[in-house]
């Protein structure tokens, strides 16, 4: 069948938008298929290197991290006032309570069974690139591992406390319980430490900048996160041993 030039021109005008739309959808589809897989660039930047630190920090590898444990603002229902740090050991989250029913949530690593802390405390001391000394109980439990370190370890990239540490006190007593960084990013979301709370290095630096000394800390084991403030500080260590990293 023959088509006159005039009619062909009208058909071309009629179907041109459809053809352009098909072509563009093909380009978009190809672009989506070509997009590399991996963590969101937003989080890659968040956990990027920190060359400005006293000991320059490399980027944290979050390629295998559960996205739930990456730092994010979330709705959070609690009676605790803004500025309170709530540690949910069961779900492996640390919350910094904010105004308006929100909180900044961080993923954490927690203590092994039998070495957990529960109750209330306050941040009695803050330290950048802290020195670490294993407790006498840790040396007694694992002399081969901790004996050579009984005199302490200087700050640095291999120090188990990482770039920052928050020391928890009850009254004037150091509980020996810490919130600190770790270079073992794989341990976030797990129960592997000797009792303290581990965070990604970039996260402990962020939290450290947000909480002053004296801030209230509530450590929950199996309790739900919402509940009235407790009247008196209570803390327990399941096996009676003091805690360190």
TrEMBL record:
Give, as in the UniProt entry, the pathway in which the protein acts: Cell wall biogenesis; peptidoglycan biosynthesis
Q: What PROSITE patterns does the entry give?
A: LD_TPASE, PROKAR_LIPOPROTEIN
> InterPro entries, per this entry?
LD-transpeptidase, LD_TPept_cat_dom, Transpep_catalytic_dom
Q: Which Gene3D superfamilies match?
A: L,D-transpeptidase catalytic domain-like
Active site positions, chain numbering = 180 (proton donor/acceptor), 196 (nucleophile)
Q: Where, if anywhere, are coiled coils annotated?
A: none
Q: Keywords for this entry? A: Cell shape, Cell wall biogenesis/degradation, Glycosyltransferase, Hydrolase, Peptidoglycan synthesis, Transferase
What is the top-level taxon of the source organism? Bacteria
Q: Name one matching Pfam family.
A: YkuD
Ranges where the L,D-TPase catalytic domain occurs: 83-220
Q: Which organism is it from?
A: Sinorhizobium numidicum
* Protein name (record): L,D-transpeptidase
| UniProt record similarity statement | Belongs to the YkuD family.
């Amino acid at each position: 069948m023959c088509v006159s030039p005039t009619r062909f021109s009208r058909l071309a005008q009629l179907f041109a938008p459809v053809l352009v739309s098909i072509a563009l959808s093909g380009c978009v589809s190809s672009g989506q298929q070509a997009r590399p897989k991996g963590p969101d660039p937003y989080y890659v930047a968040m956990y990027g290197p920190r060359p400005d630190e006293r000991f320059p920090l490399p980027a944290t590898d979050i390629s295998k991290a559960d996205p739930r444990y990456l730092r994010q603002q979330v709705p959070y229902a609690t009676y605790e006032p803004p500025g309170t740090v709530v540690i949910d050991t069961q779900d492996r989250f640390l919350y910094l309570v904010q105004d308006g029913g929100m909180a900044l949530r961080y993923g954490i690593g927690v203590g092994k069974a039998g070495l957990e802390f529960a109750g209330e405390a306050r941040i009695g001391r803050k330290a950048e690139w802290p020195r670490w000394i294993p407790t006498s109980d840790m040396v007694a439990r694992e002399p081969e591992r901790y004996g050579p370190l009984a005199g302490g370890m200087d700050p640095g990239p291999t120090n188990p406390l990482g770039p920052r540490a928050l020391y928890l006190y009850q009254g004037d007593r150091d509980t020996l319980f810490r919130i600190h960084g770790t270079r073992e990013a794989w341990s976030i979301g797990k129960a592997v430490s000797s009792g303290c709370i581990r965070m990604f290095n970039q996260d402990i630096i962020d939290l450290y900048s947000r909480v002053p000394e004296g801030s209230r800390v509530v450590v929950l084991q199996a309790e739900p996160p919402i509940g009235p403030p407790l009247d008196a500080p209570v803390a327990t260590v399941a096996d009676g041993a003091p805690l360190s990293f």
